[in-house]
Amino acid sequence: MGLQIGTFVQLKMTRNKLQRAFSFTMFLFLLENCSSNTQSESDAISHLTRGALTFVLPDPSDLLGRKCSHFSRHFCFLGYVTNEADFTREKKPEDAANFFKSVQNIYQQINWFDLLTSPSNDGCCNFQVGTYLLYGQAFGISPLQYIRLVLNLGSNNRQLTYIKAHYNTRVCLNIVSQVGFGPVGSPFVTKGMHHKYAHYMLPPVNGVVHLFKRASVRQTLNIGWFKANVLCEAQSWICNTINN
């Protein structure tokens, strides 16, 4: 099997060949430091800088990833996360009800499913309302403004600001379970039981594996690439209607 070693590698293979190909591919591509030197960090996303769009990948080793896999093979939207007051607005008693009505119309379009309750439900909408109250209303954002923010999937002025990953000792890689894209210039934060010297891999989808070198992951795993190769695979309207 010939491989071109580059910034990231895409492999297409049948599921029964995937595990065997892992050892050969990883040996060629990375294997910088296949030890147990992992870093354990909190699962919380409240550390993220303002304006981060966060996503969950269907990683079977991650709790939210397993929940996501019930709804999508590609991704689930987690929310628009901020830790700064973006707007000056007083809370209103009807905010939760108004947001509930609005989010029912758009949650399926961006794979924003309820990842906290049983997957037997239709995926809406207590989780979404709770996210809005925590990261929207609490920071002066109205229900309509928050809806606009979560639908703002353009690539301009966004970069990778957050990765949650866990280290897989069998393939010597950090398996990515969550990503966040915030304003350009924001700090880059990594969370989870990741290995600080290992490269990154997205969970395989239909036998396709994407690998990213550790040193350049922030440049290569950018919002434009993520939209084209992950978001639009599940929701083609995103690439058809959002050009930037």
Instruction: Give the CATH topology.
Output: Ribonuclease Rh, Chain A
Assembly level: single chain
The separation of the N and C termini measures 36 Å
Broad CATH class: Alpha Beta
In percent terms, what proportion of residues is strand? 15-25%
* Helix amount: 25-40%
CATH architecture: Alpha-Beta Complex
Mean pLDDT value: 81
What's the CATH H-level superfamily name? Ribonuclease T2-like
Shape: globular
How many domain regions?
1
H/E order of the elements?
EHEEHEHHHEEEEEEHHH
Q: Largest beta sheet, briefly?
A: 8 strands, mixed
Give the tally of β-strands.
10
Low-confidence stretches: 1-33, 41-47
What is the alpha-carbon Rg in Å?
18 Å
Structural class, from secondary structure content? alpha+beta
Helical segment count: 8
Structural descriptors:
single chain; 244 residues; alpha+beta; Ribonuclease Rh, Chain A; 8-stranded mixed β-sheet; two-stranded antiparallel sheet; 20% strand; globular
Write the layout of secondary structure elements.
Layout: E1 10-12, H1 15-29, E2 38-39, E3 52-56, H2 63-69, E4 76-81, H3 95-103, H4 126-135, H5 143-150, E5 158-168, E6 173-183, E7 189-191, E8 194-195, E9 200-201, E10 208-212, H6 217-220, H7 223-234, H8 237-241
Parallel strand pairs: 5-7, 6-9
Antiparallel strand pairs: 1-10, 2-8, 3-4, 3-6, 5-6, 9-10
Helix pairs in contact: 3-4
TL;DR of this structure?
The protein is of the alpha+beta class. It contains eight helices and ten strands.
Describe what you observe in this structure.
The protein has 244 residues and is α+β, with helices and mostly antiparallel strands. It has one domain: Ribonuclease T2-like (Ribonuclease Rh, Chain A). Helices cover 29% and strands 20% of the residues. The chain contains eight helices and ten strands. The protein has helices at residues 15-29, 63-69, 95-103, 126-135, 143-150, 217-220, 223-234, 237-241, and strands at residues 10-12, 38-39, 52-56, 76-81, 158-168, 173-183, 189-191, 194-195, 200-201, 208-212. The strands form two sheets. Strands 1, 3, 4, 5, 6, 7, 9 and 10 form an eight-stranded mixed sheet that branches. Strands 2-8 form a two-stranded antiparallel ribbon. It starts with 9 loop residues before the first strand and ends with a helix.
